[in-house]
């Protein structure tokens, strides 16, 4: 009986740790107020350079808090591309309420996700971006779950972005730990990490472990991840995301 109580205590403690982040976000009202998706902002956040004024090729990866209560747990991510000389961006993402879930269209790359301001995770420009874009298009076209969507544990929008990153040589971008679905590998158990120079094991996205140079170390339990990232000087908390001093992903060099 004592042993049973001890194990039950450990189990309840683990559950409390996993859900502490989402509970804290809900209690503090951190989520942006979005009463109806029809009226929620889809305006540009003004992060990306204007396509018409920028000749060079650009590849960007964004994320924003998911809609409704899901935002306490996860972000929605997408990839944006602009070809060299083009006067517009293309946005590549998965939208769960469509029959064909993959969307690849001209659009503002940095639009609010139904009221939630986007965060720029990675920004690659010039010749490197120009070389990446054809492979990104191929990866978008080859996504294996074009008619499937499950918010948890996947395949979902974050599964799609992780797929595109893995299938594009040289596009090494670490997705945040609260991009639930990024660890969904389908029938596979192991795969390279999206950030490159790392590996992960996952059982259907329900439980797994990840270690990579850009990602650090993550433990995934029921889709919720926690861990540490030495390169970013940060910690990863379920629901809250990564609290870090540095961004380990590629970004433009600051101009003096």
TrEMBL record:
Pfam families: DUF3750 (PF12570). InterPro entries: DUF3750. This is DUF3750 domain-containing protein.
């Amino acid at each position: 009986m004592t042993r049973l109580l001890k194990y039950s205590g450990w189990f309840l403690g683990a559950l409390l740790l996993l859900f502490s982040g989402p509970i804290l976000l809900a209690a503090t009202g951190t989520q942006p107020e979005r009463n109806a998706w029809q009226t929620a902002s889809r305006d540009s956040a003004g992060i990306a350079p204007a396509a018409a004024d920028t000749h060079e090729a650009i590849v960007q990866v964004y994320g924003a808090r998911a809609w409704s209560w899901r935002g306490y747990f996860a972000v929605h991510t997408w990839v944006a591309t602009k070809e060299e000389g083009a006067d517009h961006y293309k946005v590549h993402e998965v939208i769960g309420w469509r029959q064909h879930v993959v969307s690849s269209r001209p659009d503002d790359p940095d639009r609010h996700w139904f009221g939630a301001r986007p965060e720029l995770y990675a920004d690659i420009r010039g010749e490197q971006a120009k070389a990446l874009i054809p492979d990104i298009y191929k990866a978008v076209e080859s996504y294996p779950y074009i008619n499937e969507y499950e918010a948890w544990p996947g395949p979902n929008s974050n599964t799609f972005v992780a797929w595109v990153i893995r299938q594009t040589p040289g596009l090494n971008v670490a997705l945040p730990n609260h991009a639930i679905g990024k660890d969904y590998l389908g029938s596979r158990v192991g795969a390279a990490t999206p950030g490159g120079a790392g590996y992960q094991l996952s059982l259907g996205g329900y439980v797994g472990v990840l270690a990579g140079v850009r990602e650090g170390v993550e433990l995934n339990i029921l889709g919720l991840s926690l861990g540490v990232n030495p390169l970013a000087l940060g910690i990863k908390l379920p629901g809250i995301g990564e609290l870090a001093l540095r961004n380990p992903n590629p970004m433009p060099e600051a101009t003096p």
